[in-house]
Write a structure and sequence with these properties.
The protein is α/β, with parallel strands linked by helices and 341 residues long. It has two domains: 141 residues, Nucleotidyltransferase, domain 5, CATH 3.30.420.40; 183 residues, 2-Layer Sandwich (Nucleotidyltransferase, domain 5), CATH 3.30.420.190. It has twelve helices and 14 strands.
Length: 341
């Protein structure tokens, strides 16, 4: 089998995985900000291509079309496809179009709805080859995808973002990005219920860092800048969370700020549990079906499995990759899946 690179081109990260002879050999993840400059997306693609080396076959999916760098999602799909084709320089580049499979760049314009944000399905299709019945949960930095698998097939009702949001198959609840106050309008602070300030003072990365779920400094789970431009430390994260409560960090103890972070983390998990309940109400998930977790936040999927009384299976254990690479490959599940499908 020839070498192939799978691309997941997002609005916050470019993720790419290389497979040689059907086995992953390298994975990279690079932050980008196309809403600030499309050049940021182009640079991330170039860096990833340089890191993974030259191959002839490229397979791509995208969510970057949602960036407000583009006037519409359809224009975004066409633009991102053009950028990917140019920056990879590959004559053999195909784009993932969900149920329709892979299509050429010339076919993208007539299939923009199928290409847009189809990355979730690529991962689910790979998982379905290993698990007949399951609930596949990919907790990324920004969103959580919930995909039921039945009889070895993807049993999702939605294909577009709008439909998946309505069916509970997509939640804007990510491990590190997004606002903590999206999940709770008020929180217990110093023994009182306190309305939270609806400003971008903090992110879920600050919640994770205060709880010890996210190490200090840069890592694959938190490549985005902080809300105030200050360091990615526990101390700075406490200060950012304090502003949500209209306070400074010195006003309360470390234990009290940790309690606030714990409340916000549980509030987010409850939001995802509500989505699971909606999917379960369709009677599409077998009672003994496991939860399979992928993404940088898949430890949350493991906690959800425990709460649901279900077995947990790590995506990293299902893919053909060296042990040292499997964890990073699971963080970048759609890219890894495209390289292996």
């Amino acid at each position: 089998m020839a070498a192939v690179i799978g691309w997941d081109i997002g609005g916050a990260h470019v993720k790419a995985a290389r497979a040689d002879d059907g086995r992953l050999t390298a994975v990279v993840q690079i932050a980008c900000a196309p809403h600030e400059s499309v050049a940021s997306l182009e640079q991330a693609l170039r860096e990833a291509r340089a890191a993974l080396g030259d191959v002839e076959r490229h397979r791509a999916t995208m969510t970057a079309e949602l960036s407000d760098a583009f006037e519409s999602r359809s224009r975004g799909v066409i633009a991102v496809a053009a950028i990917a084709a140019r920056e990879t320089g590959a004559p053999d580049i195909l784009f993932y179009a969900g149920e329709r499979g892979f299509i050429t760049r010339d076919e993208v314009g007539a299939n923009v709805d199928a290409v847009a944000s189809a990355n979730w399905r690529a991962s689910a299709e790979l998982v379905a080859r290993h698990c007949v019945d399951a609930l596949f949960i990919d907790v990324g930095s920004t969103t959580t995808d919930l995909t039921p698998l039945c009889a070895g097939r993807v049993a999702a009702l939605g294909a577009s973002d709008a439909a998946r949001l309505a069916y509970g198959e997509l939640a804007y609840a990510g491990f590190s990005r997004g606002a903590p106050q999206a999940y709770a309008a008020r929180a217990p602070v110093a023994g009182r219920w306190t309305p939270l300030v609806n400003e971008t003072f903090a992110s879920m990365a600050d919640v994770r860092r205060v709880l010890g779920d996210l190490p200090e400094g840069e890592n694959d789970a938190d490549l985005s800048p902080t809300a105030d431009g200050r360091p990615k430390t526990v101390e700075a994260s406490r200060a950012r969370l304090a502003r949500l409560a209209g306070r400074d960090a010195f006003e309360l103890s470390e234990a009290q700020w940790r309690a606030l972070a714990g409340f916000l983390a549980r509030a987010q998990l409850r939001a995802i549990e509500d989505q699971i309940a909606l999917i379960e109400s369709r009677d599409t998930i077998a009672p003994d079906a496991p939860i399979i977790g992928a993404g940088v936040g898949r430890k949350l999927a493991a906690r959800l499995a425990q709460a649901q009384g279900r077995t947990f299976i790590d995506f990293a254990d299902l893919i053909a990759a060296p042990p040292a690479l499997a964890d990073k490959a699971a963080n970048c599940a759609p890219a890894s899946a495209l390289a292996l499908l």
